[in-house]
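Blinded run. Sample ID left blank on purpose so nobody reads anything into the name before looking at the predicted structure. Input follows.
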Amino acid sequence: MSESEAATNLISAGNLPTPNWHATHEEAQGQLTRMSEALGAGDWKGVDRGARWIFEVLRVHNEAEERELFPLLEEIGAESLHQRLHEDHRQMWDLNLQLLAEINDGQVRAPRSLTLLGQRLVDLIREHIETEEHLMLPLLKGKTLYWSDDETQDGYLILEKKLIAPETWSFIVQAPQVARGRKPGQFFMVAPFPESERIPLTLAGGDARRGYIHFIMQEVGATTQAMGKLSAGDRLYAVAGPMGTPTELVEEGTIVLMAGGYGSAAILPAAEELHAKGRRVITILGGRSRERVLLADELGKASAELIITTDDGTLGRQGLVTDALKDIIAREKVAQVVAVGPLPMMRAVSDLTKPHGIFTLVSLNALMVDGTGMCGGCRVSVGGQTKFACFDGPDFDGHQVDFNMLRMRQDWYKQEEKDICDPSECKIGRVAATGPVDYSQYLNEPVTELDWQNLDLGAIKPSQKMKIPRQEMACQPPELRVCNFDEVSLGLSPEQAKLEAARCIMCKHPACIEGCPVSINIPAFLQQIVNDDPQAAARVIKESSSLGSVCGRVCPQEKQCEIKCVVGIKGLPVSIGRLERFASDSMLGSQELPPVEAATGKKVAVIGAGPAGLTVAGELIKKGHQVTVYDALHKPGGVMLYGIPEFRLPNKIVDQEVDTLRRLGVKFVMNTLVGRSMTLEDLRQENDAIFMGTGAGLPKMMGIPGEEFKGVYTANEFLTRINLMRADLFPEYSTPVTIGKNVIIVGAGNTAMDASRAARRMGAEKVTVVYRRTINESTARKEELEHAMEEGVEFKFLTTPVQLHGNEKGWMTHAECAVMELGEPGPDGRRSPKMTDERIMIPCETLVVALGFDVNPLLAMTEKGLRTLKGGVVVVDNETGETSLPGVFAGGDVITGGATVILAMGQGRRAAAAIHKRLLGEAQAVV
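Blinded prediction complete.
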């Protein structure tokens, strides 16, 4: 067996995850001992097993070191060590291939010389590992390839931009996280300006050490046209990635890579990787004319054969790429075809290869908002199943793809991109302009028969307190609020707040604290409000909650602290949530910071900038630990930003809470999808503890015919477009959302109420909530149901869609619904719905599916040691929140499925306490 044959036979092992440095070194020592014993005994099959382990595992480990650790050696100036270790790797490779080439089914020609060669390899690896363990790894402790947002807070620098074809640009951009994690076939999301939408673009290459990426962009819509006007030296607002699953390449045989137009960028990384492995690659490039054929020189260098076709014959052969593919199939066996380009081209290639049984991948760059699987907007049909292009793809089996559905969905926003809608056809909602409003005119006066202004409210008897009526919080009038996205609830006035807080009878054993998931000392902060010191009340709240202004608005206090309130036994409970909001708001914008303990030197990584993650960050930074938060979106806040509308939770409040964490010292690394940009294991290598607060963002679909029609949204996509990407301000902000005259919301939880009320504000004439149960089984807060009804939202209970109908242009027109009836109550007390034979048709141009969310399985997929249950929820210790991976904790929706903000915060506090205890114990042990 030759060296090249040995490499070809084993090259498939190259797609292993980044190893744990120490663990692989320990495993190597055991393998080397067994290999040395086999050499001494003349057991060549045993030697062969050891050599194959070196090739399949240790080689991949070494490649990861060169990619992730060796650049750090250069940065600190350890050039001789870097060179020595690099030479060791090359020598290991050569010796190991020689050994493999000489062993044939347990037989060798020159046992003595081969024994010496094998022992030389064993000794080399042992010395190499010793050097890395005792010199390299200690030297690099605390060093990292990860960049915080300090380097990108002003944007992502365009290093080079040049025109390579009409309306087609080549960009080189500083984006270190994307450059470090990219693999063939992956893409990234870019928002060039704060007001622009996030769009997916394919990665053509990059340099992990220098931190730049290379991509090709064609001007096809408003966002890319705006990018075309940028120059080198300008900055892109957000660059997130890498996203998607790397291209699946077969292990042996000829691979044909095909591209049309800027699809060349997508196949270039695969061609270069295959070429480096000695694989046979044939590349076919197509274009309308010479200037439309891209990256031909680069692909030619990485291919055994390059074929170019143009429609007009100005370059290469005249004709279609499929003509060239037919010739190749006729002359030689093809193991795989990868086609990237216009939909008609990918469809034609798939139709051609199907009769021949050639495995064919096509890249589906569908509509996307976030690129993480959260919005569900990029759904495609593959083999009759709904898949998300950003998560399950972008590459799919071309023989299974429903190209008709894809073509229909991809022109969804074509008209809106041009922003020249015919008023009779345009489906973009417009919010009515109202101008500034003085909301103080709507505030309520305090209500009580007591002469409260001349009383010491803190000293009055409980019997007097019970006579104070619950103070009603003012709201915008319904006719006004449906025309704006300003906060509906206007809060309690200072006088109302003082009276309402005085209703608390200060129980000796306050059950309300037990009902609070974060255990706020409720009587203590209420007393400070009675004392006319709301900021002192806010400080009490901050001892337990980093997000008081948020929780005071969106948490279901009526099911938690208020339901435990003793005052509520004979009357209405104290409005604890509204008072929490009142007190916490008094500190918004304050530069005052809570005390921070002495630095411990311990590092904690928090994955996810939602309520659980931010809570952990706030708790641990105050304990003196270093905290870095990673998130895939461009702004911290998680569901509080993308999922909850401004009329319920203004974004500026979340921003101010996050700003406090920044000033405390929390670092944020945004636009970074852990599991793609880096692995969980990568973070474990660099931190003393990890917290996973990744939420439950994978939307559930109905699974009925017609969900592919344009106008059908998941609640996540619908609300993210409006809340985070500001579709309510389109076209000032460039992310659109389609709103028909008739809108249906499926579901009756808080998310459904948010979507229904947002649709009313976006101009829908009729919004109907359909729910298969009754209002009694609805999980929405009573206040949200009431607000929706006041704003004109209609409800059809005991109704569920069974099929969606549309027109010849692919737009939804009607929802066919089944009338339901309720059966007997189940174990949870809820009555199960049963479908009757009765059907009704409801006119509908826009439908929003708000049926809950599953946990995104990305981290569990990339970290096999992470134990999960059905639905992807992560298993944790009930007392500490620790997962099956030591030192990795989790909380929030990732361990419960979709739940409340305050529950996520409570779990975050629990995990933070356990992490602190763990880190403090380690620190004391070291001392």
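Unblinding after everyone has recorded impressions. The chain is about 35% helix and 20% strand.
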